[in-house]
């Protein structure tokens, strides 16, 4: 296959795979697509280890790194050394007790005394994502992607000075234009179906608008899980697809077994756009956690990054308990079509086979 993005990155298939799991990233790149590692959960030191591992397992194929530098968040003007303390002080007591009560109702025990200290900010801010960018640029990455708005112009410049292309996720044509203004090379137009932070416009409606608005290549994201959907994304004018949920259940993924099972059983109605994870709307698996934040008892969610700071320990506690009814995580509507565990290579093979069949079917329709 040949599009501007396959030429840009020297890849065989215009299939981009976002994953927090290095094994998936390396497997996708080795199969001819482009794996992109989500840096969010890693400290700079951990990221260094992950990227070194990918370098050793990717057979010289291109791969990317994704960071989260939100265009707006609480505390963006705080000094780095006082960021966590000042943000913690902004979390109301009523919110803390709501979370504690919810955990108590579901019998979730506290963390054991020897549990490692959690990280409440992760890479959710400019201050915590920049060190990740520095680490990433010390590796032979081909792409730096940013979620939640245009990356800062100096970060785009820095990436370019290392010969690294920059992508950013957009959920409206206006976002896409802003990204092109700061020098982004590829726009990922992500529809509301997508897992993770997502806007309101569906992929089917969004892609043609973004393609018409910008002159850089566009990747279609949100609800792409099979070859027919890939063909649709390219038919809408995209030059490749960017996928996320699809990789949560592959053999190589380090997704917890409970989450894998929930995804395999879920229908497309089992996700919801909720602020209960980070404070910005993200599509999550719908369950008693997301429902509780919508209930009449809910104090309402806090703005980014306060919400995640509020709930991060609670989510770790839930993950270590039997209260799987509260365990929420990002997942897109495509999980309704994901019914079996397959290898990454198989998923790519099926995407391509079904893509070819879809094109043949369309050809036949045209000929008849
Ligand atoms: C579990 C999960 C975590 C995600 N985390 C991030 C992230 O940290 N940064 C990012 O740019 N996108 C993130 N996304 C969004 C993906 O990059 C991608 O745009 C989205 O999954 C595409 O839609 P799909 O889920 O329908 O394939 C995440 C998606 C999922 C499912």
From TrEMBL:
Record protein name field: NAD(P)H-dependent flavin oxidoreductase YrpB, nitropropane dioxygenase family
PANTHER family: 2-NITROPROPANE DIOXYGENASE, MONOOXYGENASE RV1533-RELATED
Oxidoreductase is among the record's keywords: yes
Cited InterPro entries: Aldolase_TIM (IPR013785), NMO (IPR004136)
Source organism superkingdom: Bacteria
Originating species: Nonomuraea wenchangensis
Pfam families: NMO
Single Gene Ontology MF annotation: nitronate monooxygenase activity
Keyword annotations of the record: Dioxygenase, Flavoprotein, FMN, Oxidoreductase
Gene3D superfamilies linked: Aldolase class I (3.20.20.70)
């Amino acid at each position: 296959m040949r599009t501007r993005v396959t030429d840009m990155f020297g890849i065989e298939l215009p299939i981009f795979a976002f994953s927090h799991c290095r094994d998936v990233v390396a497997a996708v790149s080795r199969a001819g697509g482009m794996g992109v590692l989500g840096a969010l959960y890693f400290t700079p030191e951990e990221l260094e280890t992950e990227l070194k591992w990918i370098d050793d397992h990717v057979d010289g194929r291109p791969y990317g790194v994704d960071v989260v530098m939100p265009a707006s968040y609480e505390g963006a003007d705080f000094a780095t050394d006082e960021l966590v303390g000042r943000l913690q002080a902004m979390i109301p007591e009523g919110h803390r007790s709501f979370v504690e009560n919810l955990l108590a109702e579901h019998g979730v025990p506290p963390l054991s005394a020897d549990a490692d200290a959690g990280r409440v900010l992760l890479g959710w801010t400019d201050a915590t994502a920049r060190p990740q960018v520095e680490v990433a640029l010390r590796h032979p990455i081909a792409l730096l992607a940013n979620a939640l708005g245009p990356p800062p112009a100096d970060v785009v410049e820095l990436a370019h000075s290392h010969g690294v292309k920059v992508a950013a996720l957009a959920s409206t044509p206006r976002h896409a234009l802003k990204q092109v203004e700061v020098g982004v090379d590829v726009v990922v137009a992500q529809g509301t179906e997508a897992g993770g932070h997502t806007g309101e416009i569906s992929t089917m409606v969004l892609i043609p608008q973004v393609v018409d608005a910008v002159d850089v290549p566009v990747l279609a994201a949100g609800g792409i899980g099979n070859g027919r959907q890939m063909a649709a994304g390219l038919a809408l004018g995209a030059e490749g697809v960017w996928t996320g949920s699809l990789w949560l259940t592959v053999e190589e993924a380090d997704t917890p077994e409970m989450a894998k099972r929930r995804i395999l059983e879920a229908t497309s109605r089992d996700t919801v756009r909720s602020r209960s994870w980070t404070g910005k709307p993200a599509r999550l698996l719908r369950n008693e956690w997301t429902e509780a934040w919508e209930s009449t008892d809910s104090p309402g969610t806090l703005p980014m990054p306060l919400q995640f700071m509020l709930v991060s320990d609670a989510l770790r506690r839930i993950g270590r308990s039997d209260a799987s009814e509260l365990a929420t995580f990002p997942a897109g509507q495509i999980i309704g079509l994901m019914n079996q565990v397959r290898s990454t290579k198989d998923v790519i093979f099926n995407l391509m086979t079904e893509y070819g069949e879809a094109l043949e079917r369309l050809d036949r329709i045209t000929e008849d």
